[in-house]
Amino acid sequence: MTTVIINRSRAAGGAAARPWAALAAVLLATFMGVLDAGIVTVAVPSVQRDLHASFGAVQFVAAGYALAYAVGLVTGGRLGDRYGRRRMFLTGVVLFVLASLACAAAPTAPALIAARVLQGLAAAVMLPQVLSIIQHAFTGQARATALACYGAAVGLASIAGQLAGGALLAWDALGLGWRAVFLVNVPIGAVALVAAGLTVRESRGAQARPDLAGAGLLALALTALLLPPVLERGLPVVAAGTGAGLALFAAFALVERRQADPLVPMRLLAQRRIVRGLLTVLAFYAGNAGFFLLLAYHLQAGLGLDPLGSGLVFAPLGAGFAVASLAGRRHGGPARGTVLMAIGLAGVLLVVLSAPAGDQIGRLLPLLTLCGVGQGLVAAPLIGTVLAGVDPADAGAAGGVLLTATQVANAAGVALIGALFARVLGSAPGSPGVPFTGYTHATAVTTVAVLVLAAVTGLCAGRR
Questions:
Q1: Among 26, 255, 283, 305, who pairs with 456 as Cys (CB 3.0-4.6 Å)?
Q2: Which PROSITE patterns match (predicted)?
Q3: Which of 68, 326, 364 is nearest to 219 (CA)?
């Protein structure tokens, strides 16, 4: 009898632990996919030299991944609803690892661009399933904790790209150079694949037929909206792309309203909570992406740090983000988070304007930690706000919409803040002959723009 009781206890404990083991597996893949969106930026100069590529070609190395990833997210989420989230997640991991190997082995710039597009499409299949798996596996407070862990993973991966890329290039293991930033995905992906295969349970949503018309229009709309920003062709081109993208989005909405099985159920966008959450996502992630960009410019082009040194300055921001994401439910929320973000950004502005170059790093570190804490307090409940009340049948579509909004915000933040930085600077960042005072002025102006976005985040998140 004792043996039976013990065995039942162990079985119950294993069943209780299984969702958390599954969470660890899918978050490992999440970290890998989000990290890869930024880690390549540090390696671009090395890629350009080694493959004798033009500047336009190496821009497509980053742009190809971002564009394919964003365009495929909603469709990837719907595929999980129809064919099984576990199945599509595992398929996405395998494809991502294979595409990473193709990137590492690419002999020419066109081959690398093609592999990066495939890698982005694989991420679009893999990553929307994560939020659906969490929605299916957890309820109540456990779901809130799981979403906080997800927010921490995404935030850390977003910030860690520069540090990881700089470290891998500095290490130059086996003389691999830039190829190591892709090969690092192979062991991470293998562990995630095995762990998820053992722990993640299958789930499905609405058995809808593929919405080819909707998928095509959405792909065109997102391409028009995101391609000009990621290629950094200037504000007029970005404005033209934005206009075309909005017109295509309107056509997409009209088509979706008439579809029996739409790619994006319009009932999702009829919910005030989801719309408010998506507006908050757009303001929050656009501000974050813009801040990371202007800080990287200031640290590397202004203060003269190398990529590894710049990445190390980002580390406290990432640590603050991760800790606050996990503790956000107990110690605050978006309102307090935006206040901390604003205080940290105001402090950064004062340091940039008043401190000598040699003293800035030491003074910036605690302020960046405060910014990271504020960002983490916003990010953790924000995901839950967007997904709360979503029908499980629409979990894949909702997750795809959320991640797509994040990508749109990232691209817009980089494009607009980057363009403003270059305009105030008067030349391309990194150009010879630009004085330190020029970087000081450009960083100060763009930090004010990020402060405005933080205020918008607070207003959107605080509305009921």
A1: 283
A2: MFS
A3: 68
Question: Could you state, in order of their start, the residue ranges of all structural domains in the chain?
Answer: 14-142+157-211, 213-260, 271-464
Tokens representing 37 are: 């969106």
Q: Please tell me the distance from the alpha carbon of residue 186 to that of residue 194, in angstroms, as a whole number.
A: 12
Superfamily of domain 271-464: MFS general substrate transporter like domains (1.20.1250.20)
- Helix (H, G, I), strand (E, B), or coil: what is residue 214? helix
Q: Count of alpha carbons within 13 Å of 306, Cβ hemisphere only?
A: 7
Q: Residues 275-306: pLDDT tens digits?
A: 888 888 889 988 988 898 888 888 888 888 87
In 138-271, which ranges are continuous DSSP H helix? 140-171, 180-183, 185-199, 212-231, 235-258, 266-269
Kindly report the CATH number that applies to the domain delimited by 14-142+157-211. 1.20.1250.20
Task: Assign residue 53 a region (left: φ > 0; alpha: ψ between -120 and 50; beta: otherwise).
Answer: beta
Helix (H) or strand (E) holding 48, with range, is: helix 2-50
Return the number of other C-beta atoms located less than 10 Å from residue 358's C-beta.
8
**Residue closest to 129 by CA, chosen among 95, 177, 163:** 95
To the nearest 10°, report the CA torsion of 125, 130, 131, 134: 150
The Cα-based distances of 235 to 243, 385, 396 in angstroms read: 12, 32, 34
Q: Compute the CA torsion angle 226, 229, 235, 236 (nearest 10 deg).
A: -50
Contact (CB, 8 A) for 6 and 132: no
Q: What pTM, to 2 d.p., does this model score?
A: 0.78
Is residue 245 a contact partner of residue 227, using CB atoms and an 8 Å limit?
Answer: no
Q: Encode pLDDT of 175-209 as tens digits.
A: 888 899 899 999 999 999 999 999 999 988 766 66
Q: How far apart are CA 189 and CA 186, in angstroms?
A: 5
